[in-house]
Every structure is written in structure tokens, then in C-alpha cells.
Design a protein that fits this description.
This protein is α+β, with helices and mostly antiparallel strands. Helices cover about 30% and strands about 25% of the residues. It has a single domain, classed as Aminopeptidase, CATH 3.40.630. The chain has a five-stranded antiparallel beta sheet, sandwiched between helices. Strands 6, 7, 8 and 9 form a four-stranded antiparallel beta sheet that branches. Strand 3 and strand 4 form a beta hairpin.
Length: about 180
């Protein structure tokens, strides 16, 4: 578990499923993740995230707002897939309910995950990707200290050739002192 002034990043609970499905089913969230998810698909994402945490000791954690203990999204670290530009890299990722966006929570939680990756895991680098058309996520990446690496931008292989989110940008940050 990781705590920040306003958030708790923690493993998933069975009781998180309805709130996570609400987040994943929200059109504003789906607009940046390739579409909304129904309950079964949302549960599958949660199951994969929890399995990753149990296997590796980290993953895409549930994000709870400390003020009211409400689940507001997911933030954490995943291992980048083999079909992406940096297979095996430690990827920072986040998704928040729209009511929790625009308050600096993504930056706060992702900064904690970044620091945990460098401090606890001893990672030499963290990376992040997003649609080229997603300026808000790119702003979070910038605030986290990541730098855009245009040479590693790519067309996301899991999105159709004509999908509006297909073009992705690649950002990275080396551990300080490395």
C-alpha cells in the first residue's frame, strides 16, 4: 500500500468491482482507452491487475481518496507488453473517474508509483504511453518529469488501423543518478 496526502494506492477488493465498472463504463474514460467496458470486461481488467500485484508485488493499484474512502480509479505500474515499443519496461499507468480528474490526483498518485518504482524496485527507468491526441495525460507525464521520446512513438497494435487513438506517444524517465 502506498499513501499520499490525498490518496491510498492499494490492492483490489471484491467490493471495488461496481465502482471500477462505473469508471470503466464512463464515456469520458472510454474515450481515451479505446471504448467503454461492460461489467464483465471491467472485472477482467481488475482480475488481471490483482493477479499482477500478487505475482510481482506491484501493479495497477486501486486508488482510494483518503477524504471519503471512495474508489476514484486505478494508478500503478505494469510490465509493458511484448507487442509494444519497450517490451518488459516498467510502465506508469492511470485512469480516474471524471469527477476525480482535473485535481492533480493522477499526478499525485503516479508520482508516488514512480518514486516507489525507483526506490523500492530499484528500476532504472519508467515509461508511459498515451494517444497522441491526449494532451491531459501528456501533461501528467510532463509534470512527473518524463520526457517525450518521438523516436519511440508508434501505432498501437491493439487498435484498428483507422482508430482515432491508434497513434501513441512514448515518454520515459531514467532513475535520477543512473
Amino acid at each position: 500500500m502506498i499513501e499520499t496526502p490525498r490518496l491510498v494506492l492499494r490492492p483490489w477488493r471484491e467490493a471495488d468491482r461496481p465502482a471500477f465498472a462505473e469508471i470503466n463504463g464512463h464515456p469520458e474514460v472510454g474515450a481515451w482507452l479505446g471504448g467503454v467496458l461492460d461489467r464483465a470486461a471491467s472485472d477482467a481488467v481488475l482480475d488481471r491487475a490483482q493477479t499482477h500485484i500478487e505475482t510481482h508485488g506491484y501493479g495497477l493499484w486501486a486508488v482510494e481518496r483518503r477524504a471519503d474512502a471512495r474508489l476514484v480509479g486505478a494508478i500503478g505500474l505494469t510490465i509493458m507488453g511484448e507487442d509494444l515499443p519497450a517490451p518488459g519496461a516498467l510502465e506508469l499507468a492511470w485512469r480516474l473517474h471524471p469527477h476525480a480528474q482535473g485535481q492533480g490526483l493522477a499526478t499525485e498518485g503516479a508520482a508516488a508509483a514512480r518514486d516507489w518504482a525507483f526506490g523500492t524496485l530499484g528500476a532504472s527507468e519508467v515509461v508511459a504511453i498515451t494517444a497522441a491526441s491526449n494532451p491531459r495525460s501528456q501533461a501528467v507525464m510532463r509534470r512527473l518529469g518524463l520526457a517525450h521520446d518521438p523516436a519511440r512513438d508508434f501505432d498501437h497494435p491493439r487498435l484498428a488501423a483507422d482508430h482515432p487513438l491508434r497513434r501513441h506517444v512514448f515518454w520515459s524517465l531514467a532513475r535520477p543518478g543512473v
